[in-house]
Automatic annotation (TrEMBL):
PROSITE patterns, alphabetized: PPC
Transmembrane segments: none
Protein name according to UniProt: DUF296 domain-containing protein
Pfam families listed in its UniProt record: PCC
UniProt xrefs under Gene3D superfamilies: Hypothetical protein, similar to alpha- acetolactate decarboxylase, domain 2
Domain PPC: 14-147
Length: 149
């Protein structure tokens, strides 16, 4: 199950919950690599358990904004959380990063967040659930729908 470019990958399973620990290398795209991993491994209910690492390029969509924020520099990943639906094709992930002075910023993770030194990620997948996204009539956005298998 090791994909090209990953330095390490460990997986285990208990009570139908799988855990995958992986490390992304410098220059990799954080969101694209995670989504590709989920899709390639056909994870049906993946969520980000934890992530630490750093970015050299940050692109996020801040809360309730249409325009993306694009910053270059060195940023520590202090939080990464979210879900992958439809086997990685649809996701909702938030990230928080801090700069060298400790200032922190966060928002919706989009493509283009480039790893600086590492990203150490733990993903969980519950094989008894299936995550998908459907249009919510109240919010008009694609929202998570959880279905038991």
């Amino acid at each position: 199950m090791l994909l090209a470019g990953f330095i390490s990958l460990v997986s285990c399973q208990q009570n139908n919950v799988e855990m995958y620990a992986l490390r992304l290398k410098p220059g990799m795209d954080l969101k694209q690599e995670m989504a590709q991993f989920v899709e390639t491994n056909q994870l049906q209910s993946a969520s980000v358990s934890t992530c630490v690492g750093s970015l050299r390029e940050l692109i996020i969509r801040p809360a309730n904004q249409k325009e993306l924020l694009h910053l270059k520099g060195h940023y520590e990943i202090v939080s990464l959380t979210g879900t992958f639906a439809d086997h990685g094709k649809n996701n909702h992930i938030h990230i928080s990063v801090s700069d060298s002075t400790g200032n922190t910023i966060g928002g919706h993770l989009v493509d283009g967040n480039i790893i600086y030194t590492t990203a150490e990620i733990v993903l969980l997948n519950n094989k008894d659930l299936n995550f998908t996204r459907v249009v919510d009539p109240e919010t008009t956005f694609y929202e998570l729908e959880v279905v038991g298998n």
